[in-house]
Amino acid sequence: MAQSTQARGAEGDAESISPLVGVSVVLLIAAIGLFYVKWLPYYQRALTAFASHSIGPSVLTGGAQHIQQVSLQAAVDYALAYGKAIWRAMLLGLILGSVLQELMPRAWIARALGYPSWRTIAIGGALSIPGMMCTCCAAPVVISLRALRASASSAVAFWLGNTLLNPATLVFLGFVLGWRWATFRLVFGLLMVVGAAYAVDRFGKSDERVAGPELAELESFNYRPTFAGWWRGFVKLAGGLIPETVVLVMILGAVRALLFPEHGGVGFDNSLLWIVLMALAGLLFVIPTAGEVPIVQALLTAGVGVGPAAALLLTLPPVSLPSLVMVRRVFSLRVILVIALATATIGIAAGIAAEVCIAP
Fold first, then answer.
1. Whole-prediction pTM value?
2. With contact defined as beta carbons under 8 Å apart, do 281 and 312 qualify?
3. With contact defined as beta carbons under 8 Å apart, do 185 and 314 qualify?
4. Where are the domains of the chain?
5. What is the pLDDT of residues 287-310, one digit of tens each?
6. Is the four-CA dihedral 292, 293, 298, 303 of positive or negative sign?
7. From CA 18, how far away is CA 226, in angstroms rounded?
8. Please, where are the H alpha helices in the chain?
């Protein structure tokens, strides 16, 4: 029996991956995947935005004149359009999340991001910039960071930074709406990333800081990752996230005409009521990366006030109902409510400020 156990242990050691190889695989997958899914397509899209001052039709209408009314067909159509726009990025997010959780030494993430502080918030935000993921596609990575003992505040900074600090979106905004809008988005985006992360640390009871004894335990953790373990983690992550996301996207797609009512004749101006309503609609609705740019462009062209448009510009990308449900696995309800409240509050503030900062 002892010989059999030793033989299985030796076999497991032979199959396991060294920390250097594991980290190298994570970095290689991230670099190749992001280049193919994000960096190269967005470079080409930026050229289109420069030439045409547009990056395509609003995802709300899909190129039609009006938003589809509430129906099953509206749900299916939006789910298909959204899925077509994000499936590559979602696949990459699931791969990165599972490979990170399996191959990255646990103590490394705990040391870099495990203590809630301004430093770890800054690191989390900086790590998000190359990713440029939409909120749902970044969620699997956030889940894995939390599993590897990243603090809630650093994980929130990473999560929101993927959309709000996305350099491609800022470039699109500059070419499509003008650099005043891009600067406005950058300033309030930074405020939202830092503000939400700080609010989570301050009010979310998220002090899961990795103390000395626990860190020592992580450092002595038996690091024996395998590619088979990576595959099992991928299947588990995808199986847990994809079905519920599809259902929620369909629901939101079905009712999007209620969330974003037709603007003609209803006084869709810069009033505080419309700013609040659009901030809340943006908080719930789900869009692909940079989808807010053509939405805001279409609304401004139709005569909607800059206040509601600015509120949408800040609240549409960072979170959504599906992504908030996805991260419930690693954030308490209290933390999720703090994130939502911080996002809505800063979005409303942006809408109020837009009339002074942007309106001619």
1. 0.90
2. yes
3. yes
4. 18-357
5. 999 999 999 999 998 888 899 999
6. positive
7. 9
8. 2-15, 19-34, 40-52, 72-103, 106-113, 118-128, 135-147, 152-164, 167-176, 179-203, 212-219, 227-254, 256-259, 272-284, 292-301, 306-315, 321-326, 333-357
